[in-house]
Predict the 3D structure of the following.
Amino acid sequence: MPLLARLFNFAQWLAQDRSEAEDLVQETLMKALKGFDSFHQGTNFRAWIFRILRNTFLTSRAGLRAAAVSLDSDEEPSVEPVAGATPESILLAMADQETIARALEELPVAAREIILLCDVEEMSYQEIALTLAIPVGTVMSRLSRARKAMRGLLSDGQMRMAGRGASRGTLQ
Amino acid sequence: MTCAEMRNSLEAYADAELGAAELAEFEKHLRDCPACATDALQAMRAKRMVRAAGMRYAPSAEFQRRMQQQIAPKRWMPWVAIRMPQMVAAGIAVALLLVAATAWVGRVERERTLGEFADLHVAALASANPVDVVSTDRHTVKPWFAGKLPFSFNLPELQNSEFTLIGGRVAYFQHSAGAQLIYGLRKHEMSVFIFREQAGAIPFQVGSLNSTKLGMHLETWSDGGLRYCVIGDTPASDVHGLSELLRRAARS
């Protein structure tokens, strides 16, 4: 997938709206062209342009709405991590793509963006640190919490599904 | 390294973020501990699932065209004149980077596909029942797939070769069912995957690819609407030998 398509995919995951994603990508490319002087040769271009996109989102209407719902805090995640010893990643591996996509949508922006940068964009922790302008240690802890929160959402979803299955069973 | 320490490094391992020394220790533990090896496999599979689910939104053709026009402005405007050298440099740099990024993403896609075939091969060998149909005779294995797969294929005669057919199983690659045949050669085992060719499903069209990074050799080609892939830890010449036998069988 070319860079433009990758920027667009990330933008729509952030904004959750096609036309807002188009506006975000367009503004990002304009800012990148105008501010190309601030890009230092030899540094990471991908992290630089994703950072512009992410900052543009945070100051957009959609970004401000998202920030009002979920505070970008490294202390308290908005979605509680799943309690107890969940077998590592088994829930994720069992879930289908549609269920995973729904869980990603439900995550707060801070958790969603870091999972997307790591798993979809396959950025290194160092690149993510540059993109989000946070230390590498924070990347690791935020990513770990984001994944736990996602497992929590998937686990809740599966319990709801199982509950529906059980109630159907008793009716029959 | 204890299992508890392993759990702490599991995410960093799946994200390819462990340092060389830590990685060596981690992988040593994986060889000795089936529970941790299962956890590691699940973590990597989960990462792949998120990646597939996360590639969800594509820009429209109209929007892409509009952006390309914007990156390469044609209209002569005063502010463009003032900043012309920077604009040209920036335009060329962005265009070059887009080309480089496309090539890079293509390489990543190819590597990922190789990795998926290697995973399927290793997972089958690591399983308690590597094959669902056991045979040393192609006339038992091929009919077993009838009704299980939406296509048919020919298997080679092996009388005058060093290869033996151990058996077969149904494998899944990118949401479609295909055949996995396990062949023996001396003390090595090799997998042959046969899937229906899907547009864009396998991001390489070249005849042969080697992945030395994984310590395995792989050869892949497309014939008669089917995609073949031979993989094993044997020398590349053996992988090629089996591939040639399959090519000849497909044409017969």
